[in-house]
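agent: user wants the structure for DUF1048 domain-containing protein from Sphaerisporangium rufum. delegating to structure tool.
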Amino acid sequence: MATESNEEKGRYLRYLEVITGSLDDKRRYREYKARVRRLPENWRTAVEALERYLMHFGPMDGAGWISMYEDLADLVERSVADGTPVRDVFGEDPVEFVEAFMANYPAGRYRARERRRFTDAVRRAAGEAPGTEDEAG
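agent: tool returned. relaying tokens verbatim.
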């Protein structure tokens, strides 16, 4: 009986995850959000702004998205503990920071590769030589 019950529960959870997405990722995201709520106000403001940017321009599904958020929380928590100012982490151009940060994750590498392909295609169409990886970002 217990096997049948566990098997049915497992089947139900697999079906639920098909509909809602990974329950483990949802748990990890809630834990991440709790970490953000514990940050000092200035850091929380910066992280929430970065989250908003990622909602529009970053990966929200697929491999690595939750790891990216957890790594962000790690970085910010260490910075708070070390007394590092917000500007020292995010720099003068926060968009440059977030784009470099995203480039370390699968979706960010995909975006960089597609930007490079697009730039090279336009260069070829214009009769120019394709650029280097560094030029197209």
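agent: one observation worth passing along. Helices lie at 2-20, 23-37, 41-57, 65-82, 86-90, 94-102, 106-125, 133-136.
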